[in-house]
Recover the amino acids of this structure.
């Protein structure tokens, strides 16, 4: 299995899931600016969307969209609890949070914040929305260690990755103190540290 990634991007979420699940996976770095892989291939010939993450299985089948990739990888190791079983209501709660992170946080707030061409007013709106959506997350996490159930799932990993972006963009989440403990809890996991190291970030 090959996972195309860019250091610190949303592809880090399936990368961590693969490590948490103990799967043998080759990670291949993509330069998102030049759309070249570390092997010098034109990435668009592999994924026409030019985006990461992108998964290629041994038989050549491909999967795009981080949430789907994370679910697929998590389901390869069902005993790890990264994705609750089909039919368990918690599975849909994990999917709910994956959609929330993907649409309301990642695309809705962070994408305009990452774009240097975003107008100041739109940027201010995205920041305000991010604060309010993270306040919602913090309320949901009140008294809980993870978003769903008692153990970390694919949704927590995706949320954790986006929380790192807040740090990089100097978005102050310090008024939401339970988020710091949540972030640290996930950061401390060996698979998370291993993924950061493999991506050259520590
Ligand atoms: N809908 C995709 C979005 C993936 C995405 O936005 N990837 C970003 C990195 S976090 C990317 O590849 N950006 C480069 C580009 O869009 O050209 C998913 O959920 O996986």
């Amino acid at each position: 299995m090959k996972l195309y990634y860019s250091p610190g991007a949303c592809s880090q979420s399936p990368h961590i899931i693969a490590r948490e699940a103990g799967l043998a996976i080759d990670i291949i770095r993509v330069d998102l600016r030049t759309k070249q892989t570390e092997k010098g291939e034109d990435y668009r010939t592999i994924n026409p969307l030019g985006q990461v993450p992108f998964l290629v299985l041994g038989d050549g089948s491909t999967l795009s969209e981080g949430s789907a990739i994370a679910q697929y990888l998590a389901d390869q190791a069902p005993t790890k609890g990264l994705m609750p079983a089909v039919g368990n209501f918690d599975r849909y709660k994990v999917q709910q949070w994956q959609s929330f992170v993907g649409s309301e946080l990642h695309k809705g707030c962070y994408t305009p914040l990452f774009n240097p061409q975003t107008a100041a007013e739109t940027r201010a709106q995205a920041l305000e929305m991010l604060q309010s959506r993270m306040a919602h997350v913090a309320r949901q996490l009140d008294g809980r260690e993870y978003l769903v159930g008692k153990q970390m799932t694919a949704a927590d990993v995706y949320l954790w990755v986006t929380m790192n972006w807040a740090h990089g963009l100097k978005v102050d989440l310090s008024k939401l103190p339970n988020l710091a403990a949540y972030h640290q809890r996930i950061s401390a996991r060996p698979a998370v540290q291993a993924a950061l190291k493999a991506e050259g970030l520590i």
About this structure: The pocket of glutathione is lined by residues 9-10, 32, 50-53, 65-66, 102 (CB under 6 Å). The chain has two domains: 2-80+191-198, 89-189. The chain is about 50% helix and 10% strand. The mean pLDDT is 97.
